[in-house]
C-alpha cells in the first residue's frame, strides 16, 4: 500500500494553486443551470486540520494558504475563498478543504459526484465527510475509465495522483487520451508536481502533442525545505472553460512576486 499522506502537505503552495484553479472551474460550470458530473481519481481524505502535528511538522501550510490569506493574495469573493469560508464555518478555523469539499461547496441538487480513493485509512476518513458523493475504493483510473462518459454528460474530471508510482508519468498521457475519446465534452484536469529532476517534462510534452488545444499552466516556488525536490506545480486542462486562461495568468502572477 502506498504511503503518501497529504495531511503533511495540505494547504501548501501547490494546493493553493491547484485549488484556486479548480474552484474557478467549478464556479463557472455551476453558474449555468444544467446539471453536471464531478469525478476525482485520487480524492484523499477530503478535509485537513492545519493545526495538526502533521501540518506543524512541515510548515507547508504556513507558507501557503496561511500566508496567502494574511497577504490577501486572493479577493474575498474568489471561488476558493468562498469554499474555504464555508468549510471553516462548518469545521472550524483551522480546517482546510481538499478538492472533494471544494467540489461539495459548488455542487447542487441534481449534480453527481464520484470520488475514488484506494488507501484504506484515507478512504475511511473520506467516507465521514463525503456523503454527497458515490465513493469508490479502487484505482482511480479504473473508476474513471469505467464511468466515462458519465451521466450527466457535462462535467469535470480531476486527476491528482501522488506520483509515488513513477510509472504514472508514462501512463497518464495514455489514460487521458482514452478518457478524452470517451468523454470529448468533459473538462479533464490534471495536476502534476514540478521536480528538480524534471521527470514531468516528457509527460507534459506528450499531453501538449496529443491535445494542442489544452491549457497548460505552471507556477514555480522555493522548495519547502532544503533538499525538497518539488519546486513548482502544473495543471493541464482539456476543454478549459471560458476565462480560465486569464484566471491562470492571474494566479501565476501571484507566484512571481
From TrEMBL:
SUPFAM superfamilies (alphabetical): S-adenosyl-L-methionine-dependent methyltransferases
Annotated InterPro entries: DNA_methylase_N6_adenine_CS (IPR002052), RlmJ (IPR007473), SAM-dependent_MTases_sf (IPR029063)
Organism whose genome encodes this protein: Paracoccus denitrificans (strain Pd 1222)
Positions that bind S-adenosyl-L-methionine: 19, 42, 99, 117, 139-140, 160
Protein family membership: Belongs to the RlmJ family.
Name recorded for this polypeptide: Ribosomal RNA large subunit methyltransferase J
Subunit structure as annotated in this protein's UniProt entry: Monomer.
GO biological process, one term: rRNA base methylation
Matches recorded under Gene3D superfamilies: Vaccinia Virus protein VP39 (3.40.50.150)
GO MF terms held by the record: 23S rRNA (adenine(2030)-N(6))-methyltransferase activity; RNA binding
EC annotation from Swiss-Prot or TrEMBL: 2.1.1.266
Alphabetical keyword list: Methyltransferase, RNA-binding, rRNA processing, S-adenosyl-L-methionine, Transferase
Purpose: Specifically methylates the adenine in position 2030 of 23S rRNA.
Annotated Pfam families: RsmJ
Active site residues per record: 160 (proton acceptor)
